[in-house]
Design brief:
single chain; alpha/beta; seven-stranded parallel β-sheet; two-stranded parallel ribbon; 13 helices
Length: about 375
């Protein structure tokens, strides 16, 4: 039960590695993990050691030495588009968990090119390069690859008509999913598509609230931390009061990925929260935490913007308006709810009661990355 993992220095990928290590050291369900890491300011192996020795890693790994953890890992020093079968042929794996990719939500042409290369083209390269070696390919997509939907979606994307997306990121993940399924079917490779929704810090394993990078919805407190003092007039914030964010803790996502790895018959799984947190229930709390008390919710985008509103709607508001201001994506969460129950977790994964803890933690950490 050996596997190659991409994205091991990222938010979800590092936690998949943590869960794999715990499983490998306590059971016989999995064995060795090959991790693809490119050299940056430091070598690939030093980057891996930095992650394994970080005091913020899950406490269930604290009993193991770095040497013990490294015994279950092999570093492949490469960027993904340079990774080839020839240099990896002697490595003993027949499964890839492909977690690496861009989560850039901007609408620009540069972003469109970036997400196409990092999400679609890299996926194509991996499958074309390793098709003779692979028995299984696990693609970590996004729950938002369904795009904009008027009704609840289930775990099988073919059951739904996919036409409109909020941004190029969602479209790139959908296109990647299609390619994975078609390629794997043609080449007799078992494929699994796993779709996490919006990812937050840990809420299951201590130390709580940790994440190696504050991404996506954390951009909101980042913006307010920098600019809240400029809000001197009434702030009219455009939200859909009936909608919300679907947020899942990163440690739950990792557990779900390992669960799926051990169930190769599971073809698709939306790793989502059965209960979204409504915008009307958290937006005000976040604003008040940054001492913005003079605000109101609006059902349409306001006109005659004041200086702070102008800044907001040209920056972070522009990125998130299609998540905050329109009906949200709804999920039939029957399959993931069964796993939540099996793990003995709260039905909403603790997100609602801990939302402000997550926000406050990110502010206290000054949104700093844990890993280089």
């Amino acid at each position: 039960m050996n596997c190659l993992l991409t994205g091991a220095t990222g938010i979800v990928g590092s936690h998949i590695m943590f869960e794999w290590l715990h499983k490998a050291l306590t059971t016989k369900d999995v064995n060795h993990l090959y991790v693809v890491i490119r050299t940056s300011k430091i070598s690939a192996i030093e980057r891996l050691k930095e992650i394994l020795e970080d005091t913020d890693k899950p406490s269930f790994l604290n009993q193991y030495s770095t040497e013990t953890l490294l015994g279950k890992l092999t570093v492949i020093e490469s960027d993904l588009l340079s990774l080839d079968l020839k240099s990896s042929k002697s490595l003993n794996f027949d499964t890839i968990i492909h977690c690496a990719g861009s989560t850039n939500l901007l609408q620009t042409l540069d972003t469109q090119n970036t997400v196409k290369e990092q999400n679609l083209e890299v996926t194509k390269h991996l499958l074309n390069e390793f098709k003779s070696k692979l028995k299984r390919f696990i693609y970590i997509s996004t729950a938002y690859s369904f795009g904009i939907q008027p009704e609840k979606v289930d775990d099988t994307i073919e059951n739904h008509t996919i036409t409109d997306f909020r941004n190029p990121y969602e479209a790139s993940k959908y296109e990647s999913e299609r390619f994975v399924k078609e390629f794997c079917l043609e080449n007799s490779i078992n494929s699994q598509i796993l779709r996490p929704s919006i990812v937050c810090g840990r809420l299951i394993n201590t130390p709580l609230f940790e994440t190696p990078k504050f991404d996506v919805f954390y951009s909101w407190p980042m913006f307010l931390s920098k600019y809240a003092k400029k809000c001197t007039e009434n702030f009219r914030i455009w939200i859909d009061k009936a909608s919300g964010l679907n947020i899942v803790p990163v440690d739950f996502v990792a557990k779900a990925v390992i669960y799926a790895f051990l169930k190769p018959e599971l073809k698709e799984l939306n790793i989502v929260n059965p209960e979204q947190i409504l915008h009307k229930d958290y937006v005000g709390n976040v604003l008040r935490s940054f001492k913005i008390t003079n605000f109101e919710y609006t059902a349409t985008k306001p006109e005659n913007l004041n200086a702070f509103e102008e800044l907001y709607y040209k920056t972070i508001g522009l990125v998130f308006e299609k998540y905050l201001s329109v009906p949200d994506l709804q999920f039939n969460a029957e399959a993931i709810s069964a796993l939540i129950k099996q793990l003995g977790l709260e039905s909403n994964l603790g997100v609602h009661k801990n939302f402000m803890n997550l926000i406050n933690f990110s502010v206290e950490k000054e949104f700093r990355k844990s890993y280089s």
